[in-house]
Amino acid sequence: MTAVRNTAVSGPALPGTSGLSRTFGRSIYTKTLFDNRRVLAVWALATGLLAAMYAGFYPQLTADAADSVPEAMRGFGFDDLTSAAGYLQGAVFGLLVPLLATFYGAATGARMISADEESGYLDLLLAHPISRTRLLLHRIAALATGAVLIAAVVLGALLTVRTSAELDSISAAGFTAQAVSLALLALAFGALATGIGAATGKGRATVFGITAGTGVLTYSLHGFAPQIGADWLRHLTPFHYYIGGEPLKNGLQLADAGVLSAISAMLIGLGTWRFSHRDIGR
């Protein structure tokens, strides 16, 4: 009787195993974070370590090495490697880290709805008193939390090596601004993947492929547009709003952050609307 009363008070747990999983299973948001905790930890640690490692190479950079950068790479942020902010804008935040953030968004977003629908688990989940809108919003909130965690780990890693890597010319506010932009970039591609899966019912691999392909395409467009004399094309890519305002040097660009946030909101809104109206039966 006690067990029955406790369950009634707490509300039914979401489908899952017993113990700690059931504790986190009281909320879609917390259950999603719990189920993805290992993958999220790997993403955060790998991105943070990679950022710190490449940041540590800055003291070894020579003038000859900076001058030897191919002209084609200038559009990817490698146009000013002599300053600390210029180096990080190219080697870390212009090349490696944003691609990892893009793939995090694509991979995680593809799991939010598509993986459950593909496996048939979505039917079981929606058999509980959970609306489709609530499910999707909780899932995207968990994805956003992961994006913030990755950005926070990158921020912490760079602040840790800041002095030893001779990056003191960059303020803590500059590092924080770039980390915020990184989280918004990851969220934008996560919203794209989640929205595609929710709107179309396509499988996880298809959703990941479309999102990752879009990310690589827009990243390449942003980098190579100056080479073909079409800088205006950069404004059509999320990467322009991620790093075009040079947050490391100039701080958080509110207009750019607003554009990335608006992109995510629009994708989530469209995905939610379509998800609420389509037949998910297979």
TrEMBL record:
Keywords: Membrane, Transmembrane, Transmembrane helix. It comes from Streptomyces ruber. This is ABC transporter permease. GO terms for cellular component: plasma membrane. It comes from the Bacteria. It holds the Pfam family ABC2_membrane_2. GO terms for molecular function: ABC-type transporter activity. The chain crosses the membrane at residues 40-61, 81-104, 140-161, 173-193, 205-225, 257-276.
